[in-house]
Amino acid sequence: MEKNSGKTRRLGGLLGCAGLALSATAASGAGEPAETSPAAAAVPVVETTRPAREWGVAMGLRYADVPFVADDETVADIVPLFFYEGERIFLRGLEGGIRLWSEEKVDLNFIARYRFFDIPKEYQNELRSDALDMGAQLSFQLRPDWWLDTEILSDVDGHVQGIARLRTRIEWPGWRFQPELELRAKTSSFNSNYYGMDEFDVDAGIDMRVRLKMRRHLYSNLYLIGSVEASMLDHPARSSPVVDERFEWEAFLGVGFFSLPEMSGNNAPASASALSIRPYWRLAQGFGTDATIGEAMTGKVAEGDKTIMMTSLFYGHPLAEEFMGLPVEVYLTPGIVHHYASSAQDAATEYVLAVKFYYTFPLPWRIRFGFAEGMSYTDSITYYEETSLHRKGYRTSNLLNYLDFSLDLNIGDVVRKKALKDWWLGVGIHHRSGIFETSSMFGRIKGGSNFTNIYIQWSP
Q1: Which residues fall within 8 angstroms of residue 22, CB to CB, at 6 or more apart?
Q2: Strand partners, 177
Q3: What are the backbone angles phi and psi of residue 41, rounded to the nearest 5°?
Q4: Beta bridge partners of 68
Q5: For residues 108-118, b (16+ Cβ closer than 10 Å) or e, as one string?
């Protein structure tokens, strides 16, 4: 129990630090115009334009074999993935990081990577063996489409591994392939923990992995993504009494929405050189309810315990002004939430990282509908979430999937004041859940919590 709580505390801190770094980086470069050609340099540039960044959000099915002695030989997970390439901050699926130093062909990064540890589904809610590896990455560009990555990583319990990865990229119209060859050196403590289940001592070893990632452009922002990989375990790991496989196999297939079309093809959206939409801040007051998300969305909100309250602050970092050819604005939005102590629960801090979409209805008074998909970590489980999950027999999970639904009204339109044209008053739903028992990442649970909220949102 203590070991797992340490893992989740580190993950929550990482989400919080990433959000703060993103907002600080964006604020420092808020007035910088995008790069222009010499011919365009003579044209006045509006100060509020910002460089467009590559971003993406995806979801798919991960399928892997179980290398241990067990009745179940395979396990499947629904996995959400987030992508963002900023000047300093990056998200790349299960990996995120901060660029510490960069030269023309060399990058030094701090990275954190989520690592699945595949055990039978029936044990995943209780054991929680997935890990977060953190450390340094030094990446070299050997040729225009060839890279060598070297990494020293440790999980939160100090189990160390070193990785050397050679990768390349092959592109055809509408297609991208990324083959990778990886060697991983693992300490004895790493092997004993993960391949000896902390029951058997396993010597250090070096395993090998081959991987092929794929991305196929379908239409506009829509892509098909996938990967296959195979790992050959080192001799000490495969000689462990609890291991009965020499190879580990894994496959992933999903769909995603991405911004800039790196691959040429039909129906690819035009690349935006700059964005005119502005960052925003959102301050909300929320109230816990035991209503389901469907009931909350249709207005059938139970009375609940009004002492279960929260206050949240979100930052919106602009990503795109159009989505799938529609006037839908897209933002990367980190947030921090304070859950107040009451007679039913202790105080808690929640960290959120999500991608949010806004559609504005073209009415005399502008009304917007918003939807966000992301991840949420809380350092203490709130009342409705704990009672709901315990009632169903689940062990709670600090890390869960996050959804946000909102509807707001432009204040400037209502009072006819241009100074308030970027101010909005709205209502929303703050939702955490485990995606119906489909993911070990979220504790293999079904259920979660809902908060209805009222908020004010503005662009400085």
Answers
A1: 86, 89, 315, 317, 332, 334
A2: 170, 214
A3: -65, -25
A4: 243
A5: ebebbbbebbb
Q: Which residues contact 95 (CB under 8 A, 6 or more apart)?
A: 111, 112, 113, 114
Using one digit for the tens of pLDDT, what is the confidence trace for 184-200?
Answer: 999 999 999 999 988 89
Query: Quick check: 327 and 274 in contact, CB under 8 A?
Result: no
Q: What is the separation, in whole angstroms, between the first and last Cα of the chain?
A: 44
Mind giving me the DSSP string for 333-395?
A: EEEEEEEPP-SS---EEEEEEEEEEEEEE-SSS-EEEEEEEEEEEESS--HHHHHHHHHTTPP
> How many Å separate Cα 264 from the centre of its chain?
27
Q: Distance (Å, rounded) from C-alpha 458 to C-alpha 454?
A: 14
Angle in degrees, CA 456, 459, 460, rounded to 5? 115
Q: What is the pLDDT of residues 283-324, one digit of tens each?
A: 999 998 887 777 777 766 655 555 799 999 999 999 999 998
Report the candidate in 129, 117, 332 with the shortest Cα–Cα distance to residue 231. Answer: 117
Q: Which of 143, 30, 93 is nearest to 460 (CA)?
A: 30
Q: Which amino acid is at 34?
A: A
Tokens of 385: 């979430």
Q: 14 is written with which tokens?
A: 């990482």
Tell me the per-residue pLDDT of 77-134, one tens digit each, with 9 for 90 and over.
999 999 999 889 999 999 999 999 999 899 999 999 999 988 777 676 666 667 899 9
Beta bridge partners of 399: 377
What is the sign, positive or negative, of the torsion defined by CA atoms of 319, 433, 407, 417?
negative
- Both tokens of residue 243? 């291991």
Pairing mode, strands 160-168 and 146-154: antiparallel
DSSP codes joined into one string, 32-87: PPPP--TTGGGS---TT-EE--EEEEEEEEEEEE--BSSS--EEEEEEEEEEEE-S
Distance between CA atoms of residues 54 and 176, nearest Å: 16
- Tokens at 36, concatenated: 């222009």
- Separation in Å, CA 434 to CA 79, 175, 286, 403: 11, 32, 21, 11
Residue 115's nearest CA partner among 212, 19, 186 is 186
Structural domains of the chain ordered from first start = 53-258 (2.40.230.20), 274-458 (2.40.160.20)
Q: What's the count of helices (H) and strands (E) in the chain, helices before strands?
A: 7, 23
**Per-residue DSSP letters for 257-289?**
EESS--S--TTPPPPPSEE----EEEEEEEEEE
